[in-house]
């Protein structure tokens, strides 16, 4: 399920999202069933919007329920899964880099998994079936390809660099605390150098790197894989 808050203007009477193979089950607008179109010619989900009520309308709330087997955007491995650049192949979003938005993301995983995602950890709880619900909030608008998460049976170490916290994570059994310290030993030095040259502190006071098998290498809004 993706919830979209959109502010419509006088010249924008619809929302258009790439489908990328997503199978749309329903769209609700302000709590009511809403009409939507599937533009197969351009592979888009098109949601008509009513005229705005004023010159400065409040954001409209649309809830899109869907299912899919993404061909891109999610990488599954042995005891881990993570997202890559193709965010709009597993989430309803705009692929335009300049179309930035804040993000609230909930990831539901087995209890043995650790979750890292865009923004800050807002809350976490275990449900009755033993699954972990991890909610994250990215309050600064970012391009959709920078949204993401990584989760799995992970081991973690933390290093303090001044007032900043550095987190290093890897898959249990493939990495140890010693190997993570060794592989990321230069991160603190790089942070110290960049911070001194830029003259500003590290945004958020923390930086996370997640080491996973494969050839992926990508920055997210608040961590890297």
Order of helices and strands: EEEEEEEEEEEEEEEEHHEE
Q: If strands are numbered along the chain, what order do they take across the biggest sheet?
A: 1-7-3-4
Name the beta content range. over 45%
Low-confidence stretches: none
Largest sheet: 4 strands, antiparallel
Shape: globular
Q: Helicity range of the residues? A: under 10%
Task: Quote the average pLDDT.
Answer: 92
State the helix count: 2
What Rg is obtained from the alpha carbons, in whole angstroms? 20 Å
Structural class by helix and strand composition: mainly beta
**Number of separate strands:** 18
Separation of termini? Answer: 25 Å
Question: How would you describe the overall organization of this protein?
Answer:
- With 225 residues, the protein is mainly β.
- It is 8% helix and 46% strand.
- It has two helices and 18 strands.
- It has helices at residues 177-183, 187-198, and strands at 2-6, 14-18, 23-29, 32-33, 37-39, 44-48, 60-67, 74-77, 80-83, 101-110, 114-117, 120-126, 131-142, 149-152, 154-161, 164-171, 206-211, 223-224.
- Strand 3 (23-29) and strand 4 form a beta hairpin.
- The longest helix is centred in the C-terminal third of the chain and has 12 residues, at 187-198.
Secondary structure layout:
Layout lengths: L1 E5 L7 E5 L4 E7 L2 E2 L3 E3 L4 E5 L11 E8 L6 E4 L2 E4 L17 E10 L3 E4 L2 E7 L4 E12 L6 E4 L1 E8 L2 E8 L5 H7 L3 H12 L7 E6 L11 E2 L1
Parallel strand pairs: 16-17, 17-18
Antiparallel strand pairs: 1-7, 2-6, 3-4, 3-7, 5-6, 8-9, 9-14, 10-13, 11-14, 12-13, 15-16
């Amino acid at each position: 399920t993706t919830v979209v808050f959109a502010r419509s203007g006088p010249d924008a009477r619809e929302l258009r999202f790439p489908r990328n193979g997503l199978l749309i089950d329903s769209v609700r607008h302000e709590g009511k069933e809403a009409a939507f179109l599937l533009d197969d010619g351009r592979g888009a989900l098109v949601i008509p919007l009513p005229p705005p009520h004023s010159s400065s309308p409040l954001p409209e709330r649309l809830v899109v329920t869907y299912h899919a087997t993404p061909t891109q955007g999610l990488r599954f491995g042995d005891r881990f899964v993570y997202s890559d650049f193709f965010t709009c192949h597993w989430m309803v979003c705009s692929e335009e880099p300049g179309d930035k938005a804040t993000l609230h993301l909930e990831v539901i995983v087995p209890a043995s998994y650790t979750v890292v995602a865009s923004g800050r950890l807002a809350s976490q709880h275990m449900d009755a079936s033993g699954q972990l619900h991890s909610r994250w909030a990215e309050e600064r608008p970012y391009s959709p390809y920078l949204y993401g998460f990584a989760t799995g049976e992970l081991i973690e170490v933390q290093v303090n660099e001044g007032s900043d916290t550095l987190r290093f994570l890897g898959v249990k059994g493939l990495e140890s605390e010693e190997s993570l310290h060794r592989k990321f030993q230069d991160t603190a030095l790089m942070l110290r150098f960049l911070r001194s040259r830029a003259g500003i502190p590290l945004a958020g006071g923390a930086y996370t790197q997640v080491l996973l098998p494969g050839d992926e290498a990508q920055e997210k809004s608040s961590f890297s894989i």
